[in-house]
Amino acid sequence: MSFTLHGLAVSGGIAIGQAHLISQATLEVSHLVIAPRMVEKEVLRFETALALIRSEFAALKSNMEHSPTDIGAFIDLHLMILSDPELSEVPKQIIRERRCNAEWAIVQQMEVLVAQFEKIDDMYLRERSYDVRQVVERVVRELAGHPGHAAGKSGKGVKGENLIVVAHDLSPSDVMAFKDQHFTSFVTDVGGSTSHTAILARGMGIPAVLGLHNARQLIRDKETLIVDGTRGVLIVNPDPRILEEYELKKSLIEIERSKLRLLKTARATTLDKVKIDLLANIEELSDVPVALENGAEGVGLLRTEFIFLGRGDMPSEDEQFEAYRKIVKGMEGRSVTIRTFDLGNDKNMHSESTEERKRSNPALGLRSIRLSLAEPKSFQAQLRAILRASKLGNVKILIPMLSHAHQIDQTLAALEQAKSSLRGERIAFDESIEIGGMIEIPAAALAVGLFLRRLNFLSIGTNDLIQYTLAIDRSDEQVSSLYDPLHPAILMLLSHVISSAEKAHIPVAMCGEMAGDSRLTRLLLGMGLRQFSMHPAQIPEVKQKIKQSDISELAPIVRRIMRIEESAKIQEQIERLNI
Ligand code: PEP
Ligand code: MG
Prior knowledge:
Layout: E1 3-6, E2 8-11, E3 14-21, H1 39-63, H2 71-83, H3 85-88, H4 90-98, H5 102-118, H6 123-143, E4 163-167, H7 172-177, E5 183-188, H8 196-204, E6 208-210, H9 215-218, E7 224-228, E8 233-236, H10 240-261, E9 277-282, H11 287-293, E10 298-303, H12 305-308, H13 317-330, E11 335-339, H14 354-357, H15 368-374, H16 376-390, E12 394-399, H17 405-424, E13 434-439, H18 442-446, H19 449-452, E14 457-460, H20 462-470, H21 488-503, E15 508-510, H22 521-527, E16 531-534, H23 539-547, H24 551-561, H25 567-576
Parallel strand pairs: 3-4, 4-5, 5-6, 9-10, 9-16, 10-11, 11-12, 12-13, 13-14, 14-15, 15-16
Antiparallel strand pairs: 1-8, 2-6, 3-7, 7-8
Helix pairs in contact: 1-2, 1-6, 2-6, 4-5, 5-6, 13-16, 16-17, 22-24
């Protein structure tokens, strides 16, 4: 029987293939009582499994050294969880005290830990409970004699077959293992669009749909599936007509992609000869070659917090300098916009006190530049590190989450302090380094004049701007349908910021997800945007759209669209007018 399931479209493209079901080992664990003389053997079995997984993670990490994704950090995190006494020691006590099997012991301990995490409001810690589950799943699979990733060895040797993984859940290392296997896509029951797994899928260009709720239960092994990762749709047992339609769509996408690759060195210029800057959003050094391969003209957003996330303490000035130096060098003279730490909310270096965790609105709390200004010593270390790196290339500083004039003034004073301390120590830096501010709070967008008078450039962070304007948590899948970039309020704010910056002759870029969505490229061009910063893999498609656009034709159409009051109608017009 043919049926369709809808989930979250986390990674675009179309895959057609056969379902390959992955079982959820932790759900299938039984409780066994073991004889007293077997207890130490059971403990040994547990220790052997952990040791095996540890060495497997280490091997996986060394293979991934030049990987374009941030898998290294995920593997480190999973290694850390695996080595935590709560998971490596407590299950041994449970085995000894309750004379039970190792699988049951670790699952019991997992439930205790997850229950503790779930009592905590902090979003970052809640996500870590998800990682704990993934690590335990891996241990249970090893104990049950199904070692390896969820992808397992089963995909090997199935040459020519297009297998689509159907799982309740997958860990980032499972996703990485797909690369060497024959899996063309994956779908899962759980996971939001900002989960680690979703981020990896996007980076690797694998079509994926998450959050399907009960796909694992409804689908049987070897059933034919169509994954439409762009629309978040999964079609099970499609009828021949639908299958044919999707096969055609898929081959058109493939032809299009290979054509796009030829655009790497082409200039991003519109038909009416307006030059557009296409920049990359990156998180770490390994993203640099990917940015260059995709023809990025520079880095429009280096999310520095990702380089050091989850390490437990703040990185020193020298550590930061080293990290920034390598990225600046790697970009070979192209501009690198280094954003100061956007910590707090869901991203933290260290675990907070219980009091801090209890704050109910972390997205509205002491985060980002607010945190940097509250911790002047750390802020000085970061500013000095960026300034030192500025001597080695074309570096700009970007400040996130600004909203008040006094914050901008304080930030500029902090930068002056960092500069004069370096001068005092005779350490060279770029004296004319530019400093810009992110526009990601509605107040900043509305009162953009405050920014234009004080800063050298602006960068619009649409991810947060939409979150705060529409009052929806951007990482909560339950309200994801309300996350609407075409809401007229958003378009009004964007247009206001872009036109105000143009009048003030201050460059304005966009670095939120909207900038990389090629369906919106023409709308943004028509509004006056000239600098787009995005995930490197999105650059060729956006470049193509730019090359086919004539801004003099687009601008009046966009002005008319801006008068429409409903986003569904705006969407309709965008499609109808092919803008
Ligand atoms: C944004 O908010 O749009 C942005 C680019 O910053 P981040 O996604 O890192 O919050
Ligand atoms: Mg942001």
